[in-house]
Structure formats: structure tokens, C-alpha cells
Amino acid sequence: MNEIIRERIAAFREKAELPELDDAKLFEAFAAHCVLHQFHEDEFNAGQHRTGGGNDLGVDAWGIVVNGDLYSDLDGVKGAVESSREMNVVVIVVQAKQSANYEGKVVADLADNLRQICGRAPIAYTASPEIRELHEALGLVYDHHQKLTENSPRLEARYVHCGEEANADLERKCRSAEDALDELGRFHSIRFEAVGWRRLSQLYQRSQRKINVAFEWPSKVAIPAIAGVKEAWMGTIPASVFVERLLVDEGGSIRKFLFEDNIRDFQGESNEVNSGIAETLADPARRKRFVVLNNGITVLARSFDISGSECHMSDFQIVNGCQTGHVLFAHREQLADVHLKLTVIETEDEVMSDAITVATNRQTQIPAEDLRSNRQIHREIEEFFQTGHAPRDLYYERRSGQYDARSVTMTRVVKQNQLVQAYASVFRGQAHEATRPAKLRRDPAVRIFHPEGHAVAYYTAASIWYQVEWLFRNNRVEGRWRPARFMLMAAVVARFSGGAALPAGRAKAERFCEGLLAQIWNRDEVERLVSLMVGRLEAMAEADPSTQRLSDLVRTKGFTERFLKEAAGVE
């Protein structure tokens, strides 16, 4: 193996906390990380995308991006497909070989296998559960073809190896593979590439950098000095420049994480306002007036530098314009003659950033008191996480990308949706609903991020999430049990607490959680219990009369409750 790649993999092993993986599995995870990051620039766990083991039909990792979110399993894709009004879909498959010599036969074999995996008919070959999940996930996408946006779905296949870049013969084989897969008529576009060690090294380096964009913006003026604001600019910009340079990543996916400071997610084009935006863009005469018909985009940036008309910006969020941005992305082929109002604010502190975010979101129909309380509980949680010390150090990502420039282990960064899933599973009895974090956040009965909640409880939930994820990431628990991870988290916490519920009072909740944390951070004991519970889970799944797959069983309340009851007495 090339020495540069060896060093890159060693750095990846440390950052991804993968001390237990052997070299072959580690290279698969490394390749998945490098390739998938092209299509999803936010942080993700590459190990979750690795298929590993036999009967993988040459697919060592896969991921499906739906509307900017990356999914690694059937449950995730199903939730995204069912909840989306429109879908922009990118399917990514990776084959990873440590060999320093590439083989044209690998490309031909992978193309043949992908014809089976991506086809409508059942897979004729013997295939692992992870590959059958990919096949079914694609079937779900095709079943909802009426939701697909223009130029979707796309297939991106990569043959990653440690040799030199492809010669003319291998390039011809890649083009032949594209033609063979195109005959299926299942994808709007197909790209099959061989990735050698130089390109792989570049992809890894790029994955380690925070988002930095450069764009031309000649039509701008400076806003007069404001306390708490380093500088601010406003003006107009071609909508195509905004979409291509700021909104879309290298792989052509929308950077959905740029909208995380918006209180409301994209409401879809069936929304009255958004359908109006779409109609304006579709009309050659009206779209020329877009700049005066639309409120435009407001961006908060940590760094914004200007050199003449060229602008460089990093670590930024779109705090106003979520609806406009998504509609522009969906209609990016219709942006000729379309200009957009743009405001960029480089803030000096978090207080000013929060004030601007609240003010811009107040333009929507969201009560101001809800905005204040929502942001306060997140701050309390973030501050509590900051009190932890190694080996119990975890970091709550209140704002997307806030730890990108810091020397923290990214596997210890807990995102909002992950915290929702863990907290709802272990303290709110919702393990069967954990794959639907958006639904959990909307349900008032679940009381996620309620202002009267206790930050220590969220940290406790994050702690068991981290420990169980570590076991899966390092193959201490077989990946086929991953769909049941939230049930396992709930079962371990219930075992440690003796089945007691989280107390309502702050002082009692703190004592309760301190007792749990002392046990949760004993990884050997957590692993022992999880291993025992997996054995019971396997027996229950095999005996279940419904013959449903595990990923479906764990989403049913009855099966989850039966498992938790069984797990309480397992020895």
C-alpha cells in the first residue's frame, strides 16, 4: 500500500475511533468516508455505510442521499421517501480494494452485479442482508417516482484501489459499465469511476476541511457599522451563482445542513408560497422580476473576506431563505436571467448570531416565545456537555459545523437528531419511533427539548448512544443488529436504573443520572449486557409469527415492549 495512503488511513482510524477494525474493513470504511463526503459534506459515520462480509456482490459500502440527507439503511430511506413531497436522490456505491494493481474485471463484475441490485426484479444471486436492503431501498425510490425532481435519481459508482490512476483501457471499461447500467432505464445519469491512490488522498484531504466557498459578487454594498457585527454586505447576485457556488456541494447535492438554524424545514412545493416561487421561475417574463418579488437570502458567516468582486466565505448558515433556496435548487435549470437579493453578515459573537436568527425567523408564523425557549434549552444542553472530561467528553452540536475547526474527535460530537433519538428511546419510551426524529420533535407528548427538561438527562442519553455506537463501529456487535440499536440503548439504561423512570425534579434527576452515568461509562459492562440482549433479540425475532424483517419489527410498539420486558431479566 502507498505510504501516503497508509498515513491517511492511520489518521482516519484515530479520528473515527476504529481501533478494533482489521486492515481490510478499515480500508472499506476509509474509502466510504472519502467517496461519500463528495456527496454529503456534513459529518457522518462511514462505518454505518460499510456492508462488509460475504455475498456483498462487490459493494463494500453504499449510501443514498435524499434531499441533502445521507442514509445508510432501509429505515432511513423509507422515512425520507415517505415524508418528502419532492425528492432529489443520489445513489452511491463503493467497491474498495487494497491492491496496488487495478483490475478491469472488477469493473465489469461490479456493473453486472449492480444490474441485479438496481433492477426491479428480485436479486437472482445470493446477497447479504445489507445488499438486499439497498435493493429494497431503491425499490422504494422507484415506487415514489412521481416525487422525483428533474435530473434524479443519479447513480455514482466508485472502484477505489491503491494503484495508479486509470489508463485508457480501464476508462473504456468504466464507460462500458455506464452503458450497461443505463440500459436499465432506472437512472437519469450514471457515473462510474476508478479512484487511484492520488485521487483518494485528495478526497481525504478535502473531507478534513470545513466548507469554504468562493464566488463573484460585484453588485454589493457595505452596510454601516453595527455593534456585534464585524461587517455586513447586501446586494444582488445571479441565482445560478448562489446555487452553484454556495448551495450545492461538489457531488451536486444541496447542502441541507446550511439550513439547520431555520426553525422550519423546507415545506415542499405544494406550499402556496413555494408553488408561487416555482411558477415565477417557470415563466420567462416573470423570472426577470424575481429580485423584486422575493425577500431574498440572509447568510450568517464566521469568516467573510473580499478581494475586489471575489468573495471567500466559510462556516456559514442560511438563516433566512430556506424555502427560496430549496425551490431554486429544484429549478436550477430555469435560472437564466434570475437575480436574487443576498445579505451576508459576519458576526462577532453568538449573542448577535442568535438575535439575527430569531429576528429573521420571526417573519414566519412561529411564536417568539417558542423561539426563545427552543434556543435556551439547546444552550443549556451545550453548556452541560462542555463540563465533561475525558474519557466522558462529548460535544453537543447546537449549530451545524461548530466543531469543524476545533481539535475534537468528531465521533464524540452528537448532532441534534441523534440526541432526539437517544433521549426519546431511553427516557420517553419511544425506541420504536426513534428512526423518525422529525416526528418525535413535533409530538408535544414526547416533550423533546422542552424548556423544563434537564440537560443532564440529555447528556446521559448521549452517553449510552456513544457507547453503543462505539460497539457497532468497531464490530464488537454485528452490524446486522444495528436496526435494533435504540432498543438496545433503552434496554441497557432500564437495566441500570432497575426500571425506574427519570424523576421530574431537577435535583432528583441529577442524582438519578449520575448513578446511570457511572454504569454507562463502564464499556465492558455495557458490552456484556448488549451481547446478552442481542442473543435474546435473535431468539425473539426468529420466533416472531409475523416473519417480518428485524428493521420492521423494531419499529412496532408491541415487539419493542416485549423485548424490553425480556431484556430486563436476561443474565
Can you summarize this structure?
This protein is α/β, with parallel strands linked by helices. The chain folds into 3 domains: 3-208, Trna Endonuclease, Chain: A, domain 1 (3-Layer(aba) Sandwich); 212-362, no CATH class; 370-568, no CATH class.
Question: What key phrases describe this protein's structure?
Answer:
single chain; Trna Endonuclease, Chain: A, domain 1; 3 domains; 5-stranded mixed β-sheet; AIPR protein; AIPR_C
Could you explain the architecture of this structure?
This protein has 571 residues and is of the alpha/beta class. The chain folds into three domains: 3-208, Trna Endonuclease, Chain: A, domain 1 (3-Layer(aba) Sandwich); 212-362, no CATH class; 370-568, no CATH class. Helices cover 45% and strands 15% of the residues. It has helices at 3-15, 23-36, 74-83, 104-118, 129-143, 168-182, 197-207, 239-247, 272-282, 290-293, 322-330, 350-361, 368-385, 416-427, 437-442, 455-473, 485-497, 506-520, 523-543, 550-553, 557-567, and strands at 61-66, 69-71, 89-96, 154-160, 189-195, 212-216, 220-222, 229-238, 297-307, 310-320, 339-347, 395-396, 413-414. The strands form three sheets. A six-stranded mixed beta sheet has the order 6-10-9-11-8-7. The protein has a five-stranded mixed beta sheet with strand order 2-1-3-4-5, with helices on both faces. The chain has a two-stranded parallel sheet with strand order 12-13. Helix 13 (368-385) crosses helix 16 and helix 17 (485-497) crosses helix 18.
